[in-house]
Amino acid sequence: MRMPGSTIKSRQTQPVQTIAIAGGKGGVGKSVVAANLAATLGSDAHDVLLVDGDLEMGSIDQLLSLHPKHTLSDVMSGHSELSDIVLQGPKGVSVVPSGSGVYEMAQLSQVEHASLIGLFSDLCTEAEVMIIDVATGLSESMLSFCRAVREVIIVVVDEPTAVRDAYATIRVLHEKCRTRRFRVVSNKTQSSCHGLDIYSALVDKTDQTMDVLLDYCGSIPFDPQLKLAVCQQQSVIEAYPCSPSALAFRKLGARVSRWPQPQTPCGHIEFFVERLIQTAEGTR
Ligand SMILES: Nc1ncnc2c1ncn2[C@@H]1O[C@H](COP(=O)(O)OP(=O)(O)O)[C@@H](O)[C@H]1O
Ligand SMILES: [Mg+2]
Predict the structure, then answer these.
(1) pLDDT at residue 207 in the model
(2) Which among 21, 25, 28, 32 is the best mutation to test ligand 1's pocket, defined by most ligand atoms within 8 Å of the CB?
(3) Which ligand 1 atom lies nearest to the CA of residue 224?
(4) Each residue of 162-189: pLDDT tens digit?
(5) What is the reported pLDDT for 264?
(6) What ligand 1 atom has the least distance to the C-alpha of 187?
(7) Coil, strand or helix: which one is 223?
(8) What angle, rounded to 10 degrees, do the helices at 30-43 and 224-231 form?
(9) What is the CB-side half-sphere exposure of residue 193 using CA atoms within 13 A?
(10) Which domains does the chain have, with CATH numbers?
């Protein structure tokens, strides 16, 4: 596996907003939200880097009809450079694909995750926003990516297990990474009130036990056209731009665009290798 110190050309010119899309439970819509938020921001004249951070079972390539020859597993085995695996996705979106079913990628150590994330700091990209779709569960890769970014979006749906898993994700990120601020998106909702109810259920659970801030970022309705777009391997923004979910993604994109940008050009991802290896003393 590739270790820190690899030679990739560096051009760190501008601060980059870094966002991880997490949530704990599988099937809640993390990958769909990551792909469509990226497509929304890309269509809105932002340069976006969409990273498939589900190193074991990546799906972003499938969601966007991409056919990668090489993926992050080739980067980790030293057979490809990170810059060589970047693909062109929807308008304005560059995609870093992950493999699916590569056993070794499920076994990466904390240092190897740090090494992988360190490579992004040196990637030559014009991206203003980097969105990372992270894996289901409480894996080391989920922790490493969420620790490395400035913003964590928690995707949650109206199921007791989804709320519980979202809570568990928040608790673990708070304990292990000292993350204090989380953005919350309710998905597959029936109405805007429904979205707020799901958010309130999560707030009730966390308020009792943790000193964290949950910022509600709105809801994405349950939308058969979004399902169709998934089957057609397109973003709903492109396939059905007037559908309810596409409109909701536009609202979410506008909201994300208003979040404060990092002030310093500290690289394309906030943390560097040393900081990942240390026990986190996060400052977010
Ligand atoms: N808002 C929505 N409306 C309808 N179907 C949705 C919505 N969000 C997600 N889905 C469906 O849920 C499935 C699982 O979503 P996915 O993003 O793969 O979940 P995760 O990444 O959290 O495991 C998608 O394939 C899609 O069919
Ligand atoms: Mg996923």
Answers:
(1) 85
(2) 32
(3) 4
(4) 999 999 999 999 999 999 999 999 999 9
(5) 60
(6) 1
(7) coil
(8) 90
(9) 0
(10) 21-275 (3.40.50.300)
Residue 262 has pLDDT above 90, yes or no: no
| Residue 6 · residue 119 · CB < 8 Å | yes
**SS3 at position 176:** helix
Is 36's C-beta closer than 6 angstroms to any atom of ligand 1? no
**Would you say residue 133 has pLDDT above 70?**
yes
Report residue 177 CA to chain centroid gap: 16
User: What residue type is 161 in one-letter code?
Assistant: T
- State which of 28, 62, 230 you would mutate to test the pocket of ligand 1, scoring each by most atoms of that ligand within 8 A of its C-beta: 230
Query: What residues flank ion ligand 2 with Cβ within 5 A?
Result: 30-31
Q: What is the DSSP letter of 57?
A: B
| Half-sphere exposure for 49 (CA within 13 Å, toward CB) | 23
Q: List the beta bridge partners of residue 184.
A: 154, 216
Which residues are 134's β-sheet partners?
Answer: 53
Question: Average pLDDT in the 129-157 region?
Answer: 94
Q: Please say if the pLDDT value at position 205 is more than 60.
A: yes
Which numbered ligand comes closest to the C-alpha of 57? 2
Q: For position 51, what pLDDT does the model report?
A: 97
**What predicted TM-score, i.e. pTM, was given to this entire model?**
0.91
Average pLDDT, integer, range 23-50? 96
Would you say the CB of residue 220 lies under 6 angstroms from ligand 1?
Answer: yes
Q: What is the pLDDT of residue 146?
A: 94
30 lines ligand 1 (CB under 6 A): yes
Long-range contacts of range 243-246, CB-CB < 8 Å, 24 or more positions apart? 245/36, 245/220, 245/221, 246/36
Tokens of 68: 């990668």
Q: Is the pLDDT of residue 267 over 50?
A: no
